[in-house]
Amino acid sequence: MLGTAQLKTLLINELPRMRRFAYSLTGNKSDADDLVQSLVEKLLRKGIKKNIPAIPWFLKVCKNLWIDETRANQSRRKLAESSAQEPIAENEAGPENDQMAQILKAMEQLNDEQRQLVGLVIVEGFSYAEAARTLDIPVGTVMSRVARARAKLAQLLTAP
Amino acid sequence: MLSEQDHQLISASLDGELEPEQDLAFKRRLLQDPELNKQYQTLKALDQNLKNTFGDIANAPVPQQLAALLVNDKKVEDDQQQTAKNSHWRFLALAASVGAIGLLSFFGFQNSTNDTMSLALTKALNTQPSMEMKQLDQNSQFIALQSFRHNDGRVCREYLVNDTDTQSHLVACITNQHWQVEFQQDSALSESEYYVTVTAEENKTIEFYLKKAITGAKLSTDDELKQIKDGWL
Asked: Is 1.10.1740 the CATH number for A1-93?
């Protein structure tokens, strides 16, 4: 197993990617940082084997935590929808501009699997093979889901 | 209306997942199919917007609780300070590069020794991302197919120049700070040939050259944009 000090150094180095991926899953910066906090706590508690490629493993655990959290809180989506009507709290960082807000809104329309792949392949630049290994799905499924996710986002963003 | 297969082709091309031969065939099709090309450009822009949107979380400070978990002595604090410093340097570097591009463009145009390459073409090679059409003059169009690193370390671009009746397929590499044409193949572009893919023989020729020249280091979209910003030096 990797020593705690080494693991922390690795986590610090990969923090930007973990936060970005978590943001692509949650669509909200505060939720993303909460998710990354849970991820870091879990990784520090469980440790990581020395020979495992770190970032795919981190993002895989991150994805699993997000799914667990989503399942555990089935009313989460309803809450998010209702809170979307409320003004953003002053201390909560919202999207920088309208275009980003539209992207986040469109991402909400994707299913969980598509959202994970947008985060891994488009945002993080994973190859289809890497994404397939991370999500335990066939490469062909990655290819078709990424294509459908892109087409759907484009359709949502160009719709009048 | 594009088929699902076309959507998959566009997507795989954007993700760099097509084999070189498939990618070339796809990009040639893009030139001939405006609907496919339009969707390709839309999805390419979408990718950039997604990266910008989710990359924006880097501008939000790391919550203290999370940072505290990662403290290995003062590493996080130092890291954040370093990031802040880097931001200043990045800004200065960006400002400098914008200035440099202006100067290089000026001197590049003034000192170009390659008589066969027009100023418009030099500018297109310097500034056009791959798969974005550029009108060079009234009759000719430019489109870069890809950028890559040559075996010998030089940065090169594969591109097409179409005029009314000819298509030139070229590869140019940065040599002594100028674009130098390394490969050129001209073919007639008659009405009947316009919608026909290139012959196997032509394919072999360009493939032969590219296989010899590319080490496998095809530049990604991000790397290419960086080269454009940095003036291909």
From this structure: yes
Q: Which residue of B has its CA nearest to A107?
A: B50
A44 CB contacts (<8 Å, ≥6 apart)? A4, A7, A8, A11, B69
Low-confidence ranges of chain B (pLDDT < 70): 72-117, 189-207, 215-216
Supply the Cα-derived Rg of chain B in whole angstroms.
21
Question: Rounded CA gap, B204 and B189, in Å?
Answer: 19
ipTM of this complex? 0.85
Select the residue of A93, A144, A154 nearest B60 (Cβ to Cβ).
A93
Half-sphere exposure at residue B109, Cβ-oriented, CA atoms within 13 angstroms? 11
- What pLDDT was estimated at residue A74? 54
Does the distance separating the beta carbons of A100 and B57 come in below 8 Å? no
| Nearest in space to A13 (alpha carbons), one of B72, B88, B89 | B72
At B194 the pLDDT is 36
Q: What is the largest CA-CA distance in chain A?
A: 54
**A44-102 pLDDT, tens digit each:** 999 888 888 889 999 999 999 998 887 776 555 555 565 555 444 444 555 667 889 99
CB spacing of A157 vs B79 below 8 angstroms: no
Give the closest of A11, A16, A153 to B70, CB-based: A11
Q: Could you give the residue range(s) of every CATH 1.10.10.10 domain in chain A?
A: 95-160
Tell me the shortest Cα–Cα distance from A154 to chain B, in angstroms: 7
Contact state of A37 with B65 under an 8 Å Cβ cutoff:
yes
Determine whether the interchain pair B54/A119 forms a contact, defined as Cβ–Cβ distance below 8 Å. yes
CB contact under 8 A, A33 and B62: yes
CATH 1.10.1740 maps onto chain A at: 1-93
Q: What is the CATH number of domain A95-160?
A: 1.10.10.10
Work out how many CB contacts closer than 8 A connect A with B: 112
Q: Answer whether A8's CB lies under 8 Å from A49's CB.
A: no
Q: What is the CA radius of gyration of chain A?
A: 16
